[in-house]
Amino acid sequence: MSISNEALEKLVREIEAQSIAAQQQIGLVRTQQASKQREMRLAQLTRNELATLPESTAVYEGVGKMFVSVPVPALKDRLGTEMKEMETEVENLGKRLHYLETTAKNSQEHIEKMLKGSGQA
How far apart are CA 105 and CA 115, in angstroms? Predict the structure, then answer.
């Protein structure tokens, strides 16, 4: 069961294209993951600072070009919710990264296997 050289070349090109696309996606996902982790860290630091303030402290949040007074407990709750959402997003990005890395690895293995197989024929 041998495959013609043209068909083999076409198959190698398709697998190579999948591998390149997976590598590009891996870079994108890693960037997104790093960004979310920075946002989480910033939210955690802000929440830690808010924990040191008394409940009656006037705290302001930027909204467009103005600042709006926000109660400390409400801001703490919002930051906690945002952190949970970001943790979920980072976890999902980690799963996607694992999938893409596996896809890229498998594509490379298939190419190598095909090239070794055609070299023996």
Answer: 15
Tens digit of each residue's pLDDT (9 = 90 or more) over 10-48: 888 888 888 889 899 999 999 999 999 999 999 999 999
Task: Compute how many other C-beta atoms are within 10 angstroms of the C-beta atom of residue 100.
Answer: 20
Residue 49 CA to residue 108 CA, distance in Å, equals 48
Tokens of 28: 């994108």
Tell me the C-alpha distance between 43 and 15, whole Å: 42
Q: Identify any residues that bridge with 67 across adjacent strands, giving them in sequence order.
A: 62
Q: Enter the pTM of the model.
A: 0.76
- Nearest Cα residue to 73 out of 87, 86, 62, 59: 59
Q: Per the structure block, which two tokens stand in for 36?
A: 């979310």
